[in-house]
Specification:
The structure is a homodimer. Chain A has helices at about 35-45, 125-135, 155-160, 175-185, 185-190, 205-210, 235-245, 260-275, 335-340, 345-350, and strands at about 20-25, 60, 65, 80-90, 95-105, 110, 115-120, 145-150, 165-170, 195-200, 215-220, 245-255, 275-285, 295-300. By secondary structure, chain A is α/β, with parallel strands linked by helices. A 7-stranded mixed β-sheet of chain A has the order 10-9-8-11-12-14-13. In chain A, β13 (about 275-285) and β14 (about 295-300) form a beta hairpin. In chain A, α7 packs across α8 (about 260-275). Chain A starts with 20 loop residues before the first strand and ends with a helix. The model of chain A is unreliable at about 1-70 (pLDDT under 50).
Chain lengths: ~350, ~350
């Protein structure tokens, strides 16, 4: 699940501003806490809040403590705002703050630590691509591991694959799963598949203990590589993944925006080329609510049988039951699969290994 | 050129807020003029302006008249904001308000009537695709017409094609051309090509007077179909284009976002299928500063020699001098050309004629 945007949110204020809150997302690293109590007051006295502001710290208004989420470092110098119809849930787990709101343009939105993870309207692109790019690239996948993905959307997509016999999912935060089951049933339905085995815990530890060569495919549906997810883009993590894959097994890892994060992409590709020793490719998809409107995927195969990622050997249209699944495919098809590997000239130039 | 975002801009205020202005873009149709003088005052007293607000009308602060650009109806319920380093130019032509500013994330930005038209960082995707998708789909294009495109970026791209002998451009607003020549020399360089003939005037009238069958390709680089550009998506306009194309000649027309404007796309395709009687296809590209991060292109061929748009018969890599042009291609290549025609499942379902 991608961290997408900086979210500004007035904690505890939903009773006071019940109608419309504009979630303001901003990322300029030079922003400073210029917002005054004056502005905060306006927020409370307007029946429709149409704008508020950026903080680097807490602000107070009377008795109410204002918690503000800020600064997605993955998207400096710009902001994306969603019109909020209603705040549906707000809580704090052992690991992060969790927010669910109803937006006027994208349906319900899941936010973790102030960063938009998914919206009902465009989650299809991310979930379908991160699941089917790897699973359609190998014949008859049987054993799959999902790292992260507590909302269940990736599981929902994996469940289209009738060849799959076993799906492990290792999610660190059980509250994300609970919130998804309550507010995002169209994603959490993935947990109802009888092939799914849930492991709540640290994925790095889980992978260390996994039998060598256990998985045909591993899908890393993690947060942005800042904060706690940092180690998920480092070499030791990829080494534990490579170890857990069978020869010719595949990894699909969320890999940021080609417009914004070419250095990070370059680094990940270098590390993965050394580690997996099979093929390493980059693909991308359009997701409007993610920074710069795109999200990338790193696809790696472990040394062994060759994997031709851009020409799916196991096309979704031929997977029994995949198309007639109770939820239709919304973004993915075999044409989109192959097209996702076409890369802009600037990316090929900047990331030499592509 | 695509109208992309709603831009909020305090006219005449650049001397008073010299350091940093946040351009706030918002599109909710339900927004009302809730901004008070209180907020406006804050704008002037902060040395770094980090937020301001949404208007449907003019606001005043002391003597200074505040003009606000607002409400791109193509993108309701969300907003995109760019951090403004410096306002470089502001003026008003016979047709529209013109603004140029330096952003911190995307270089210089051109804004017409409050809607972002292009940024230096991502204009490559739009200009290269709208020019090369049609020109690489036909063998040896010789006569080309550009409708709109006053910034010169499309001309710059057409000039890579050594087969082209004559380029007409019909732009209604000469001030756009002048502003581009002054502030966007990397785009306006397109006007220096000796094959270019500039016609300042109304494109509908120009096309009516054009000899039948004159052009191999027509590229419509227009604004969003709201306001004055409305007639550029209607049947009579497409009929004049079809008339001006040779048999088997091609049109490439800016065609909005597949995420936001499926009805409009459906309408355009229906009209064009009736009008051109050749093939009609939809392609898309990633452009971060356009609504939902994508822009679409409608590609039509007039009845005559068949045009296989998704497999370029005139690949850019084989066009003499196209790759070694003084400016490198940044987005387009033949892989991106073909990939652009792969469409998400939802679009194929919603636009039946695709």
């Amino acid at each position: 699940m991608l961290n997408a945007m900086q979210l500004l949110f007035l904690g505890g204020s939903q009773n006071l501003v019940p109608f419309l809150v504009v979630v303001l997302l901003f990322c300029s690293p030079c922003l400073v806490p210029y917002v005054s109590v004056e502005l905060m007051l306006m927020l409370f006295f307007w029946s429709k809040i149409i704008v508020f502001a950026f903080f680097f710290s807490f602000a107070y208004l009377g008795e109410a403590r204002k918690k503000v989420y800020f600064n997605n470092p993955m998207w400096p110098g710009e902001a994306h705002s969603l019109d909020v119809k209603e705040i549906i849930y707000k809580g704090k787990s052992e690991y992060q703050e969790i927010l669910v709101f109803e937006s006027s343009a994208y349906g319900k939105v899941l936010v973790l630590d102030g960063i938009v993870q998914l919206t009902e309207s465009d989650e299809c692109a991310y979930q379908e691509m991160i699941a089917h790019l790897p699973l359609c690239s190998i014949p008859s996948p049987k054993s799959v591991l999902v790292v992260g993905g507590g909302d269940g959307g990736v599981l929902r997509e994996i469940s289209r694959h009738s060849s799959v016999e076993h799906i492990d999912i290792c999610e660190i935060d059980s509250m994300v799963i609970d919130v998804s089951k309550k507010y995002f049933p169209e994603l959490a339905v993935g947990f109802t598949d009888r092939r799914v085995k849930l492991h709540v815990g640290d994925a790095v530890e889980f992978l260390r203990l996994a039998p060598e060569g256990k998985y045909d495919a591993i899908i890393v549906d993690s947060s942005d590589p800042v904060g706690p997810a940092q180690e998920l883009v480092e070499k030791p993590f990829f080494e534990t993944i490579a170890r857990a894959l069978r020869p010719g097994g595949v990894l699909c890892n969320m890999a940021e925006s080609m417009w914004l994060h070419t250095h990070l992409i370059d680094d990940m590709i270098s590390v993965c080329s050394e580690t997996f020793k099979g093929s390493v490719h980059y693909a991308w998809a359009s997701v409007p609510t993610y920074p710069s409107g795109v999200i990338g995927f790193l696809l790696c195969s472990k040394a062994g049988p060759h994997v031709d990622f851009s020409n799916p050997v196991n096309p979704i249209e031929k997977v029994e039951g995949a198309i007639t699944h109770k939820r239709e495919l919304r973004y993915y098809n075999s044409e989109m699969h192959s097209a996702a590997f076409a890369l802009p000239a600037f990316l090929k130039r900047e990331v030499k290994s592509l």
